[in-house]
Specification:
Distance between the termini: 54 Å
CATH topology: Rossmann fold
Family: Belongs to the isochorismatase family.
CATH architecture: 3-Layer(aba) Sandwich
Strand order of the largest sheet: 5-2-1-6-7-8
Number of strands: 8
Helix content: 25-40%
Largest sheet: 6 strands, parallel
CATH superfamily: Isochorismatase-like
InterPro entries: Isochorismatase-like_dom, Isochorismatase-like_sf, Isochorismatase_Nicotinamidase, TAT_signal
Radius of gyration: 21 Å
CATH class: Alpha Beta
Enzyme class: hydrolase
Shape: globular
Protein name: Nicotinamidase
Number of domains: 1
GO molecular function, one term: metal ion binding
Number of helices: 5
Mean pLDDT: 90
């Protein structure tokens, strides 16, 4: 007859076996295929340390993005590409300060410090990005009177950048989004990608947020509601 100690040991082994699939073993890695694309959003000098709109810890996304990019045959990068005196700049609105908001014809606009002005060093992509196989750079926000967070649509919700058409022509089915900033350009890109019919993953540790007035928590909630999957870079299978 089994004594109490043996019974407890057996119960413990059974419980451990029950928990093992979820508690002890990581889920299978995601293997990007020819129908997958990595979207690298706005890793530009203005958003990095010393920039006019620096995102806290923004530089930390660069090595993560470089690493995961090797797993993708298809990589697209974006650049904010604003005109001087862009409507999203606080300096254009009398009496307004950065991070305040104004109502514009297309909706509520957060006002920013002047940033990513066309042709300036601040608008340049980080020199530390190492993605030589990136095949397309999408520039956005170049219309003076409308902002453009998303890589797919400008802030009016109807002016297309052409990215959705490009990806569909390339037979891309799912996109992985990384870059700056989580709660603005990354989130808007992810949400518009879902609206365009793509399966969407946001690589959390390959992004950093600004988080003004609760914007980061709201962005994650909005993305979850839209069916965007939140993953880590370790969830992506390294290239062979």
């Amino acid at each position: 007859m089994l004594d109490r100690r043996q019974i407890l040991a057996m119960l413990g082994t059974t419980a451990l076996a029950t928990l093992a699939p979820t508690a002890l073993f990581a889920a299978s890695s995601i293997k990007p295929d020819e129908a997958s694309a990595l979207l690298v959003i706005d890793v530009q000098n203005c958003f990095l340390p010393g920039g006019s709109l620096a995102v806290k810890e923004g530089e930390q996304v660069v090595p993560v993005i470089n690493k995961i990019s090797k797993a993708f045959a298809n990589v697209v990068m974006t650049q904010d590409w604003h005109t001087p005196g862009h409507i999203s700049f606080a300096s254009v609105h009398s009496g307004k300060k950065p991070f305040e908001t104004v109502d514009l014809p297309y909706g509520k606009q957060v006002l920013w410090p002047d940033h990513c002005v066309q042709g300036t060093d601040g608008a340049a992509l980080s020199k530390d990005l190492a993605i030589p196989h990136a095949e397309l750079i999408i520039r956005k926000g170049f219309h003076k009177d409308v902002d453009s967070y998303s890589a797919f649509l400008e802030a009016d919700g109807k002016t297309s950048t052409g990215l959705a058409g490009y990806l569909k022509a390339r037979k891309i089915k799912r996109v992985f989004v990384a870059g700056l900033a989580t709660d603005f350009c990354v989130a808007w890109t992810a949400l518009d990608a879902r609206k365009a019919g793509f399966e969407v993953y946001v690589v959390e540790d390959a992004c950093r947020g600004i988080d003004t007035q609760g914007s980061l928590a709201k962005a994650w909630a909005d993305m979850a509601k839209a069916g965007v999957k939140r993953i880590q870079s370790a969830d992506i299978a390294a290239s062979a």
